[in-house]
Specification:
The complex is a heterodimer. By secondary structure, chain A is mainly alpha-helical. Chain A has 19 helices and no strands. Helices cover about 70% and strands about 0% of the residues of chain A. In chain A, α4 crosses α10, α7 runs antiparallel to α9 and α10 runs antiparallel to α17. Chain B contains 16 helices and no strands. Classes of the chains: A mainly alpha, B mainly alpha.
Chain lengths: ~525, ~450
């Protein structure tokens, strides 16, 4: 019988046995979306890939973007929780479970995208049956499989003691199947010394093992693109660039998931400001690295001016992909602003009346209207007279000034709401990173080396399948945390003991506690 | 003399740290003489080159950049040791860095001038370096390079001097038996440092602020150095990865150099207690990460390039894998990755001798790496058809080798002389009872990115 804190029991264990109406509504909404996606896919499977807007030479599009995006998100979990475990960051404790769950579900959805992208999904087996070692595709299959297996194990191992805790702490009216599930998953966990030692060894090994696996997964995905000779893809920087982007978007997803869980289950006492602050620093570092890599990648192409390469870059900078490219840049700059500027404001600065969210939204609106005028003016006869060089420069200056003004306007609000601002930054970065993948794949497939030009815009089928995939991802996540604790109970309890010991600066006895909940180990202070 | 009222944090190792400053040994004067002799040899070689022109070197069309530029990149890379250890680890809040900050920063400070000097030596008409200022163009990576490197040199001097300030004041107050000119030097350089709490607080704040700036500079400087190559369209140079790759290599070789210097200081100046083995163990972990990161970059670079199989790129790659540079290339792979990773993982723990062996290998290997990045490309340039009989090979002449040796001798000499005039381990930073107990808690600097403690 593993005993736990009354507070943990109330906050973490009890919600697993109650089903709220909001949960049912959310799951049915998500389920509907997922079903629509399934229907769209069924139609695609029946009629063939012709129902999508893919055609020669655009063989890879939205589905591939989703694939890279979801695999990128999956780096949230494993990499972050593994790195934080290896470096012994104490603050990781309440968020590891969420991060690891994101990994598993994002990997499932990501892999699914590949199958959806295939006109004959049954031919997937050919990579195994007739695979060639030189092919990055087979490296990809192998590494993603290894990654999936190890991250599901990595999710399960720390879950085992929690399953035992749930088995022993079920309320009397708990459904029998649920108790049975916990009993099964606990695998006879009793919390004795030998079990703890073995578990700790397993987790420590996996944490170290999974870091190179995660890095290799995203590098190999990037090499599927980079080992071709297509302009814009054949770039040596792709491996590290994709890994950085993956971790970056992973932290964004983690922010959203953390906040969702925290709000839905009222876990403010567990997932606190400390987690948001430290993760925010990591996020900021990744943001800076992302800019560095993006700059390095594009500057080389711009300076090289090679005919095939430059066409692709031009399509991004001022061609038909300029909207997505600059939107991506705007997203990343906005995230940087949200993460940095409120922190730089000294506490003593008085609130300036004019800097209010309302004013900020108004100036964003003004900027959007100006932007619409600027982009419409060459094509609209009524506005053509306005479209002189001077007025355009003036308009662009005004747009930038209005955006900066809007950013200043929300800064005080962001400073007052650190959790909300981290979540907003996370969401913005997720959108930005999806666009980043779009900007990597689509400009190249529409301007490949041997074909001058092609066009692509996603069809309804692709949109619905994408939406359905996203809904399925969120649904799996939500359902998982309906049945399993969102915060690792034993790890948080252990963290409390360590913290108490640190604050008193005494060593706790290295004996196992009577409840069997604490790991018998020497605490490193 | 200053009144004895200035405050110095208590440090039980003060006597050990100050001992090298108090007395110069006889052997050491011999070392200085030998190093000076080597520098004289280099000066003679340079005079020869000055008189006869660059024809006395092995450089010729199309190999314009040889081991001088290799030295340039290598020295600038070495310079990243100090900034990495003091600035980046300062931001990361790694407390173990404190005893080795100054030893590392001194490497930065003394290798940068030789990096810049290599450029001047490489020029047939060094006076024309001014043309970059007079006629520089913003599009030119050379202008970025000059700007970044001089900014880096300037800010490292400031950063170094600021963290030296309390220790200069300590020297001023403690070394009363030193010659009068030396005491006067300390007095001037100490800028009236009294060790008042607000002085320490201000110093810490400035150092924190500069640490952020220096971190950005580290990234910029070596990236810009790499872009001098990357912005061309030469095969092997025109690769997007070259910025991060140079950066990782720079921090890698710099950190390895810190290990070598620390081990020598520890042995020669009997600083076993001041520089404990735990420092080497911490550096070992960092070096393992860097070794693997270097291999990762290497794979990313060569895998992508060789899969492309582009007609221009492949001759350069074959030059490295099996051609004229194969010997150097594979030596590099052994010296930078294979041996060091084995030593670090299996032998390096608690064993300074093995650590030094691995780090010497790494630094030799990283010098070769720079050579292998620079020269093979020039021997097989994009317009390979322009090569005529006897072109496209390069062997350094004695002039280049003598100058290279003299540059390394100069770096060593500056370093050795420095350790005899200033404490090479920061006394105030390693003091057990730091000024903080007397200070009000340093709130303002923690506010900005305020998670030092919880991290």
């Amino acid at each position: 019988m593993l005993a736990i804190d009354a507070k943990d029991k109330e906050k973490i264990v009890m919600p697993l046995f109650r089903t709220s109406r909001a949960f049912i509504a959310l799951v049915s909404a998500l389920g509907t979306l997922a079903l629509i996606g399934v229907a769209a896919y069924a139609r695609q499977l029946y009629l063939g890939l012709g129902v999508t807007n893919m055609d020669r030479p655009v063989y890879w599009s939205t589905y591939m973007v989703n694939f890279i995006f979801f695999i990128g998100i999956s780096h949230a979990g494993t990499l972050i929780s593994a790195i934080l475990r290896v470096t012994g960051a104490e603050w990781r404790r309440p968020i590891t479970r969420v991060a690891e769950a994101i990994t598993v579900f994002a990997l499932m959805i990501g892999t699914l995208q590949i199958i959806i992208d295939m006109g004959r999904p049954d031919r997937l087996a050919f990579t195994i049956l007739n695979g060639r070692l030189q092919s990055p595709i087979i490296w990809d299959i192998v590494s993603v499989t290894v990654y999936f297996l190890s991250s599901i194990t990595y999710l399960y191992l720390p879950l085992m003691p929690d399953a035992a805790i749930l088995r022993d702490n079920c309320p009397p009216d708990a459904p029998a199947w649920q108790v049975k599930m916990y009993t099964l998953l606990a695998l006879g966990w009793r919390g004795n010394r030998a079990q703890w030692v073995r578990l700790e060894k397993g987790i420590a090994f996996l944490a170290v093992f999974i870091i190179p696996v995660a890095i290799s997964v995203h590098s190999i995905i990037s090499w599927i693109l980079a080992t071709t000779v297509q302009p814009g893809w054949h770039s040596t920087i792709f491996g590290p660039y994709f890994v950085i982007g993956a971790i970056f978007s992973g932290i964004g997803a983690l922010f959203l998931a953390m906040t969702g869980i925290r709000k839905a289950l009222g876990l403010e006492g567990y997932i606190g400001l400390r987690q948001y602050r430290n993760l925010g620093l990591l996020f900021l570092t990744m943001n800076a690295l992302w800019f560095y890599f993006t700059y390095a990648e594009n500057l080389g192409i711009a300076a090289g001016q090679q005919p095939e390469e430059f066409v692709v870059l031009a399509a991004k900078l001022w061609g038909e992909f300029a909207p997505t490219f600059w939107l991506m840049i705007l997203m990343m700059v906005a995230a940087f602003w949200i993460l940095v500027v409120p922190k730089l404001l000294p506490a003593s600065v008085e609130r300036v009346e004019v800097f209010q969210p309302r004013v900020a939204f108004a100036s964003v609106g003004a900027a959007v209207i100006l932007f619409a005028l600027v982009s419409l003016s060459p094509r609209t006869p009524a506005l053509a007279a306005l479209s002189t060089a001077n007025s355009l420069t003036l308009a662009w200056a005004a747009i930038i000034a209005l955006l900066i003004f809007a950013a200043l306007g929300v800064t005080f609000w962001l400073k007052a709401h650190p959790v909300a601002s981290a979540t907003i930054a996370g969401g913005i970065v997720l959108v930005g990173m999806w666009l980043e993948r779009w900007n990597i794949i689509l400009p190249t497939v529409t301007h490949p080396r041997l074909i001058p030009y092609a066009a692509y815009f996603p069809s309804l089928t692709e949109g619905l399948v994408t939406l359905g995939s996203l809904a399925l991802f969120v649904m799996m996540f939500v359902v998982f945390f309906k049945f399993f604790p969102a915060v690792s109970i034993w790890e948080v309890a252990e963290g409390r003991v360590i913290e108490a010991a640190q604050s008193k600066n005494i060593m706790p006895a290295p004996e196992p506690s009577k409840t069997g909940l604490l790991r018998p180990r020497k605490f490193k202070l | 003399m200053r009144p004895a009222t200035s405050y110095h944090p208590q440090n039980k190792n003060e006597a050990v740290i100050l001992a090298p400053v108090r007395r110069v040994t006889f052997e050491e004067r011999w070392l200085w003489a030998i190093l000076l002799g080597l520098m004289g040899l280099g000066a003679y070689a340079y005079l020869t080159q000055w008189n006869s022109g660059l024809g006395v070197t092995g450089l010729n069309r199309p190999v314009y950049w040889g081991i001088y530029i290799t030295n340039f990149v290598f020295f600038i890379g070495l310079a990243h040791s100090g900034t990495f250890i003091s600035a980046i680890l300062r931001l990361a809040g790694a407390g173990w860095r404190k005893p080795l900050t100054r030893a590392a920063e001194a490497i930065t400070l003394f290798s940068l001038p030789f990096g810049v000097g290599s450029i001047l030596i490489d020029m047939g008409r060094p006076d024309r370096v001014l043309n970059i200022m007079f006629y520089g163009r913003f599009q030119s990576p050379l202008l970025w390079d000059i700007t970044a490197v001089s900014l880096y040199l300037f800010s490292s001097i400031v950063f170094f001097y600021l963290s030296l300030l309390p220790d200069i004041a300590l020297c001023r107050d403690r070394l009363t038996e030193a010659p009068a000119w030396q005491q006067k030097m300390y007095k001037i350089l100490a800028l009236g440092w009294m060790g008042r709490p607000e002085q320490f607080e201000r110093l810490e704040r400035v150092l924190d602020g500069m640490a952020i700036f220096m971190t950005l500079l580290v990234v910029t400087v070596h990236t810009v150095v790499s872009w001098v190559f990357g912005m061309t369209v030469e095969p092997g140079w025109h690769t997007a990865l070259i910025g991060p790759f140079f950066l990782v290599g720079a921090i890698f070789s710099g950190t390895a150099a810190v290990v070598i210097v620390l081990a020598i200081l520890r042995r020669v100046y009997h600083m076993e207690n001041v520089l404990p083995v735990s420092l080497f163990n911490s550096l070992r972990k960092l070096l393992i990460v860097f070794t693997v990161a270097w291999l990762y970059m290497m794979i990313a670079e060569f895998l992508t390039a060789s899969y492309g199989g582009l007609a221009d790129e492949m001759p350069v790659i074959w030059q490295k894998f099996t051609g004229d540079f194969a010997g150097l290339f594979w030596t590099m792979a052994l010296a930078v990755f294979v041996f060091p990773i084995l030593i670090f993982v299996f032998l390096g723990k608690d064993h300074i001798g093995w650590m030094v062996t691995a780090c010497v290998l790494i630094n030799i290997g990283m010098w070769i790496e720079r050579f292998v990045v620079i020269v093979p490309t020039e021997t097989r340039p994009r317009l390979v058809s322009t090569l005529m009989e006897g072109m496209g090979n390069y062997t350094p002449s004695w002039v280049e080798i003598a100058i290279t040796v003299s540059l390394f001798a100069g770096l060593t000499l500056l370093y050795v002389v420095f350790t005899r005039f200033f404490p090479i381990v920061p006394i105030w930073e390693t003091a057990e009872e730091t000024a903080e107990t007397e200070l009000p808690p340093v709130e303002p600097r923690r506010k900005v990115f305020g998670t030092r403690q919880s991290l």
